[in-house]
Design brief:
The complex is a heterodimer of chains A (about 110) and B (about 110). By secondary structure, chain A is mainly beta. In chain A, about 0% of the residues lie in helices and about 55% in strands. In chain A, strands 2, 4, 5, 9, 10 and 11 form a six-stranded mixed β-sheet that branches. Chain A starts with a strand and ends with a strand. Chain B is built from no helices and eleven strands. Classes of the chains: A mainly beta (about 110), B mainly beta (about 110). At the A-B interface, strand 4, strand 5 and strand 10 of A face strand 5 and strand 10 of B.
C-alpha cells in the first residue's frame, strides 16, 4: 500500500511562472518530508526538506509547504526555469521508525521557454 | 571522486549469471542503502546498513545478497535473477540512519535481465 502519493505524473509550466508540485501521504506518523529532483541518467538529488514542526521552508526559488491536517505537502518553484525540467520525488519518513524513506512515484516537470 | 559512485552504470545479464553491483561513498557517511526503481513504481528500499551492519531488509528475495565490507563500500550480489528484476538500482548514503537524515544518491545501475 503506497503511503506517499504524487497524483500528477506530469506537469508543464511556462518559464517564469510558478510550478506547484503536490504530494499526499497517508501515514500520520511521518514527521519529516523531503523533495528530490532527478535528471535522466542521474540519481535523485536532494532539493529541500521540512520537519513536521514547521509548515513552510524556503530555499531560494524553492518553497515547501506542509499541511499536516490534510496530510499534504507541496513544492513551489518561483520563477520556473528550463533547467528545472526533471522528475521530482516526494519522500517521507518517521523518525521513530528510522531508516526508510517512503517515496512517491514522481512528477515529471517540463518548463517551456 | 566525490559523492556517491556506482559501477557499472549499465548491466545486461542472463538468468543464470552471477554479477555484482558496487557502490562507493566519499562523504564520510555511516549508513548506506540499496533501492530499486522499477518502471512506473516508487523507489523501493531493499537494504540498509548502519556502521557496516545490516539493520533492515525489506523482504527482498535471496537472489539479492548485499555486502558492506566497510562504511565506504556497499555491494549487491546478484544470482539467478528473473526478468522482472530488471530495474534501476540506486545506492544512497547518509550521515546517520535516523528517519531525518538526508540521503545522497548515486547515479544508479540500469540492470536488464534477459
Amino acid at each position: 500500500d503506497q503511503q506517499v502519493k504524487q497524483n500528477s505524473p506530469s506537469l508543464s509550466v511556462q518559464e517564469g511562472r510558478i510550478s506547484i508540485l503536490n504530494c499526499d501521504y497517508t501515514n500520520s506518523m511521518f514527521d519529516y518530508f523531503l523533495w528530490y529532483k532527478k535528471y535522466p541518467a542521474e540519481g535523485p538529488t536532494f532539493l529541500i526538506s521540512i520537519s513536521s514542526i514547521k509548515d513552510k521552508n524556503e530555499d531560494g526559488r524553492f518553497t515547501v509547504f506542509l499541511n499536516k491536517s490534510a496530510k499534504h505537502l507541496s513544492l513551489h518553484i518561483v520563477p520556473s526555469q528550463p533547467g528545472d525540467s526533471a522528475v521530482y520525488f516526494c519522500a517521507a519518513s518517521a523518525q521513530d521508525s528510522g531508516y526508510a524513506l517512503n517515496f512517491g512515484k514522481g512528477t515529471s516537470l517540463l518548463v517551456t521557454p | 571522486e566525490t559523492g556517491v559512485t556506482q559501477t557499472p552504470r549499465h548491466l545486461v545479464m542472463g538468468m543464470t549469471n552471477k554479477k555484482s553491483l558496487k557502490c562507493e561513498q566519499h562523504l564520510g557517511h555511516n549508513a548506506m542503502y540499496w533501492y530499486k526503481q522499477s518502471a512506473k513504481k516508487p523507489l523501493e528500499l531493499m537494504f540498509v546498513y548502519s556502521l557496516e551492519e545490516r539493520v533492515e531488509n525489506n523482504s527482498v528475495p535471496s537472489r539479492f545478497s548485499p555486502e558492506c565490507p566497510n562504511s565506504s563500500h556497499l555491494f549487491l550480489h546478484l544470482h539467478t535473477l528473473q526478468p522482472e528484476d530488471s530495474a534501476l538500482y540506486l545506492c544512497a548514503s547518509s550521515q546517520g540512519s535516523s528517519g531525518t537524515e538526508t540521503q545522497y544518491f548515486g547515479p544508479g545501475t540500469r540492470l536488464l535481465v534477459l
